[in-house]
């Protein structure tokens, strides 16, 4: 019996809706599912060529999975295969819409629920050695139980599935191509950038992990130390994170020659674009980097429901070229493809370093009578500015997921009234109105000198696009924490803000705001401490802004 395509699309969308409910806390994983692997027992499903199955994972656990095969597959012909590990807190039904598209175009597709989640066995290892071994086990099973071609194996995934795909490909030469969407390259550089705990990101991951799975002992200890700001355990946490970072194994990916496509959102609350761009630059294989407006996984979300989606369209083109040999031109296009947060369509570049054609260095100046320093325009060094750390100034990076989603859908980023920010707890510098538009592309960098009255401190820097009414729209930001510096001793601040693509209209100003608190992060300023920013004559303070 053949089902109409529309019915199959609705079936896929319903399945993904059920899977995505996990992120909203709907339902919880069974308490005990780590049973020994059972023989594969396919079950009949509503979609032709579709079946559920059990796959033996590493250590004797069972991974719950589903398989889609091309129509008419009879065992006499081999097909390229794509393996899809599930995202964090989701299950193997997540990719059904995209899996069907791939199967319709001639792929064997195997989707599986990552270990520790839902009905798969084991415990959550966050890309640890058991997860990497699972990838190879799934490849073994796919070659043994489907008409997959061993010379044409690929992986793809969103978020956790993206990270597992990169880690798996680094350790298994059989994987020839990877599409990693909204994934991480450097786990430490993602949720611990600037030595600052990304509170909301870690809380969301931890809560959804407990709701839908069974965190392993090491994850539980690491998460507890992380949220408790145990800097005496920092070395252990960093080691744990590096072991689970694809960037640690980039030389293996290069040696394997794996074709790697990376996609992410400018405002990703979990995995910022800086760490992904750094990883991309170190790859020496066929590679592609795509960055779009949005937050974590929002750029790919509509594709999971079978709707038109640029990220998934390019993903299929990437796999078609590197697994099927299709001459679709993807290898001849500019490998870096960006979409500005303020609109204007896609831009292509030959490399990440080519994204900015010039850099403006704007000097930071002394405060005027209104408490605002000059930004650029010949601002002179030799000043100092002191702020308190009592409370949040009102400048912040927004709310995890929601704020950047609003920016993606409605072009409404986090905003602040720059004239009304309390100068007692916020240092503010503002430029003159620009005669022409500024097309910011890449990574803004802050250089200044900081002196704290305490032995630990956190600063958060924000760059705003300010209109004639003083309303600032957040362009980018980033935190930085200093621990163990002697109180009263100056430290040099060199802070990369999160990379972005944003067009500031002519007539608008740029405003740099630095404060000490943000709901997104755990900050470390003792009660009553004060921070002084200064610009010595021999080491003046400045902000570099990459533009085109």
From TrEMBL:
Record has Protease as a keyword: no
SMART domains cross-referenced by the UniProt entry: PepX_C
Molecular function as annotated in GO: carboxylic ester hydrolase activity; dipeptidyl-peptidase activity
InterPro entries documented for this protein: AB_hydrolase_fold, FrsA_esterase, Galactose-bd-like_sf, Xaa-Pro-like_dom, Xaa-Pro_dipept_C
Classification of source organism: Bacteria, Bacillati, Actinomycetota, Actinomycetes, Kitasatosporales
Residues making up the signal peptide according to the UniProt record: 1-28
Protein name: Acyl esterase
Xaa-Pro dipeptidyl-peptidase C-terminal domain sequence ranges: 316-543
Coiled coil: none
């Amino acid at each position: 019996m053949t089902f109409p395509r529309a019915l199959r699309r609705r079936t896929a969308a319903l399945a993904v809706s059920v899977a995505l409910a996990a992120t909203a806390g709907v339902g919880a994983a069974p308490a005990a599912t780590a049973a020994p692997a059972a023989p594969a027992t396919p079950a009949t499903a509503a979609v032709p060529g579709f079946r559920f199955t059990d796959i033996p994972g590493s250590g004797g656990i069972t991974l719950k999975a589903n398989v889609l095969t091309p129509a008419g597959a009879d065992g006499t012909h081999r097909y390229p295969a794509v393996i899809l590990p599930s995202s964090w807190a989701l299950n193997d039904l997540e990719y059904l819409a995209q899996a069907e598209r791939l199967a319709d175009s001639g792929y064997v597709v195997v989707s599986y629920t990552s270990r520790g989640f839902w009905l798969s066995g084991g415990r959550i290892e966050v890309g640890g050695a058991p997860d990497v071994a699972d990838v190879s086990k799934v490849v073994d099973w796919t070659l043994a139980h489907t008409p997959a071609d061993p010379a044409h194996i690929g992986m793809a995934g969103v978020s956790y599935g993206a990270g597992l795909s990169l880690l798996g490909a680094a350790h298994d030469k059989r994987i020839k191509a990877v599409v990693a969407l909204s994934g991480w390259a450097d786990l430490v550089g993602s949720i611990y950038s600037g030595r600052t705990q990304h509170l909301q990101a870690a809380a969301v991951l931890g809560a959804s992990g407990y709701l839908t799975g069974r965190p392993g002992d090491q994850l539980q200890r690491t998460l507890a130390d992380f949220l408790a700001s145990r800097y005496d355990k920092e070395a252990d946490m960093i080691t744990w994170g590096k072991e689970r970072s694809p960037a640690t194994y980039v030389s293996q990916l290069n040696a394997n020659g794996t074709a790697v496509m990376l996609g992410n959102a400018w405002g990703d609350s979990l995995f910022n674009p800086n760490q992904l761009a750094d990883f991309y630059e170190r790859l020496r294989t066929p590679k592609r980097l795509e960055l779009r407006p949005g937050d974590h996984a929002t750029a790919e979300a509509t594709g999971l429901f079978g709707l038109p989606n640029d990220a998934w369209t390019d993903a299929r083109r990437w796999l078609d070229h590197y697994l099927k040999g299709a001459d679709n031109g993807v290898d001849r296009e500019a490998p870096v493809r960006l979409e500005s947060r303020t609109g204007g369509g896609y831009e292509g570049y030959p490399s990440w370093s080519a994204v900015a054609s010039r850099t403006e260095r704007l000097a930071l100046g002394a405060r005027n009578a209104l408490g605002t320093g000059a930004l650029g325009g010949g601002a002179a060094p030799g000043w100092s500015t002191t702020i308190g750390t009592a409370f949040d100034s009102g400048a912040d990076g927004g709310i995890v997921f929601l704020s950047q989603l609003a920016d993606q859908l409605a072009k409404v980023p986090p905003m602040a009234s720059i004239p009304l920010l309390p100068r007692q707890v916020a240092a503010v510098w503002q430029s003159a109105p620009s005669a022409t538009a500024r097309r910011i592309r890449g990574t803004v960098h802050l250089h200044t000198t900081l002196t704290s009255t305490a032995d630990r401190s956190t600063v958060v820097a924000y760059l705003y696009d300010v209109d004639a009414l003083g309303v600032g729209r957040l362009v980018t930001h980033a935190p930085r924490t200093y621990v163990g510096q002697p109180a009263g001793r100056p430290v040099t601040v060199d802070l990369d803000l999160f990379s972005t693509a944003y067009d500031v209209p002519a007539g608008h100003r740029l405003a740099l705001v630095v404060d000490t608190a943000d709901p997104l992060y755990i900050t470390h300023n003792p009660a009553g401490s004060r921070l002084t920013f200064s610009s010595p004559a021999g080491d003046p303070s400045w902000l570099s802004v990459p533009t085109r």
